[in-house]
Amino acid sequence: MTSSIQDVFTHIENNQQLFVKRLAEWVSVRSVSSQPELRGEVLRMVQMTAQHIERLGGAVEMVDIGTETLADGSKLALPPVILAEIGRDPAKKTVCVYGHLDVQPAQLEDGWDSDPFTLTHRNGKLYGRGATDDKGPVLSWLNCIESFQAVSKALPVNVKLCLEGMEESGSIGLGELIAERGKSFFGNVDCVCISDSYWLGTQTPCLTFGLRGLCYFEIEVQCAQRDLHSGVYGGSVHEAMTDLTQILASLVDSSGRILVPGIYKSVKPLSEMEAQLCANVDFSPEEYRLEIGATTLQQHTKEDILNHRWHLPSLSIHGIEGAFSELGQKTVIPSRVVGKFSIRTVPNMEPDEVERQVKDYVAQTFSELRSPNRFRITMPVGSQAWVADSTHPNYTAGRNAMRRVFGVEPNLIRDGCSIPVTLDFARHTALNVLLLSLGACDDGAHSQNEKFNLSNYMNGMKVMASYLEELSLVLPKE
Ligand SMILES: NCC(=O)N[C@@H](Cc1c[nH]cn1)C(=O)O
Ligand SMILES: [Zn+2]
Ligand SMILES: [Zn+2]
User: Fold this and answer.
1) Which ligand is nearest to the CA of 170?
2) Measuring CA to CA, which residue among 376, 178, 201 is closest to residue 305?
3) pTM here?
4) ipTM
5) What is the arithmetic mean of pLDDT over 97-124?
6) Is 102 annotated in the active site?
């Protein structure tokens, strides 16, 4: 008797302990792509995943994508990209699953309640860096495929995998690979699925069809050849931090309005359909405020909040490299500081124009300080916003799968974060990309105490299994 999708679901349910243990192994690898000293860990994570796919009978290619040049001019090898395939039945459709194996930095001292790289199960939540962004979802795909195999149910579609180790650092090198393999590895792919985004709330599942882009800036100011005692030298040096903080303060006002001249001129006006979408989704401003622990928000209605998160640019100041930030009262004048901020871009903003506007404005602001210090501004990462065709059968398959597992209609939403590869697929292929969101809004991606709900982990694997079956039914036959 052939196995059913219910048998796959039952296998998933019966192997919860094994799947949690595996996630713990993955989270324990400190695959932080932004810290060069941990590049070996990113490589180890990629190799572990490749071996896991091979154990599932997959064919794996580890593609060398070269090196990156660090701020000091040195070269560092980029982690290879995994291009793999499980199932090559020419009679079946093919989906390509994308995910990333690198994570954002984390340390206990940031305010975690447990070691960020030790998966900790508390009250039905699996706490650890990468649990939701994006190791949990990537591992879910492999567990899902294993569950089909375990009950001897053939995969309904062929599955290709594109897994990288640099997403949290701007997916360096991936775009070129997709361009190069657009007609080969990606040539027989029918659609793409990415699970690297989050629900608007904690209960209603979501499909995401739009993301903001990201323009990341670094402003370097140097006032001396070494750090200086602020008592001995203070008052006689044009301090780099003084210059930098005045520049940063000139970028955005307390209402969140970006002060760079012309930055809003290319923003696409809100359409009636977009306004309606904001009005229809299941989202509570009060739940959102309480969940993030803010006393008040910049906006107060559901529509206004979502419009600002999805359809309008925002500017965030992230930190200052070289500034003193430890506990205690170090009395130093930092000789060289690098301020870091980013602008989330929305449709029709172009990264090149944003770069020009920001650089002109910051240079003008710096010149008005009449400072003799050395100054430089760069934009290491720049990407546009991304919006998919949510009427594509790929979205129908996602919707049907979510409805089957959760018993409710998923919300169709946009998100304010960025996933660079979505643009690479749009630029170099004609493939539809579905963001099959598995994480809850309070998962804390990039934040302290990042977590993945055990229920989202387990139900997510069932959604994936059901999505693969739905794809085989809804994708048009040739
Ligand atoms: N889960 C998606 C995500 O977190 N994407 C990052 C992408 C990034 C980070 N630095 C450069 N790109 C995001 O911050 O949106
Ligand atoms: Zn991610
Ligand atoms: Zn992330």
Assistant:
1) 1
2) 201
3) 0.93
4) 0.94
5) 98
6) yes
